[in-house]
Amino acid sequence: MGTIDMTHRILMVEDEINLQQTLSERLIDAGFVVAVAGCVHDAKHLIDKHPFHLAILDVGLPDGSGFDVARTIREKHLDMAIVFLTAFGAPEQRVLGLELGAEDYIVKPFHFRELLLRIQNALKRTAYQPKAEDLVEQNLTIGEVKVDLSAFTVERDGDTETLSAKEAALLRLLYRKRGQAVSREEIMERVWADDGQITTRTVDNFISNLRKRFGDQNREEQIFQNIRGVGYRLNLPQE
User: Fold this and answer.
1) CATH class of residue range 9-128
2) DSSP string covering the chain
3) The domain made up of 134-234 is a member of CATH 1.10.10.10
4) pLDDT digits (tens, 9 = 90+) for 92-137
């Protein structure tokens, strides 16, 4: 079996306590970082607070269903793989899970080794498959500034400047979540996941650089808004 990226974070949504504990322990032993939720409400809270690479979803939950969690993930356009792990195995339920964008649908009981292989396959597919937003969100207009993320350039008042790779990644993240507050911790995780030397001050400095490129410091209402105690928001409406 291939090695597992230690940075992969899994959200497991399961209300059966024994399975929740056993499965989370085995996934941690396999090298994953695991967060656990026992209901839809807690799962949505974790999704809003932390970035994850994959979600393992039970269908039957005390306050709704795993389908509700999957809809939330897809509505937020998160680059998160979804694997259903549930006792609900009717054909129409399997179809619904796949229609909601799940990479796999596994019916209990299951073998852990099989689940692990399916998780690895789901992570590989989502890592290498181009996302629709990756193809669309290359040429952006933010205010009066034109951005070409494929060429790493911004054009303002006839002048063109070059973005660094990290500036482009930060801008893409904020654009995907435009209108929403994005925490400094999420920015660090998604833009600098492999660099343990990065601090929240680094994020602030990069935002400051983007503000200069966009002429944001001279605006009455800034595009890159500081949300006190949280992080930043790109002040653009979702289309």
Assistant:
1) alpha beta
2) -----TT-EEEEE---HHHHHHHHHHHHHTT-EEEEESSHHHHHHHHHHS--SEEEE-SEETTEEHHHHHHHHHHTT---EEEEEES---HHHHHHHHHTT-SEEEESS--HHHHHHHHHHHHHHHHHSPPHHHHHTTEEEETTEEEETTTTEEEETTEEEEPPHHHHHHHHHHHHTTTSEEEHHHHHHHHSTT-TT--HHHHHHHHHHHHHHTTGGG-SS-SEEEETTTEEEE-----
3) yes
4) 998 899 888 888 999 998 999 999 999 988 887 766 444 545 444 5
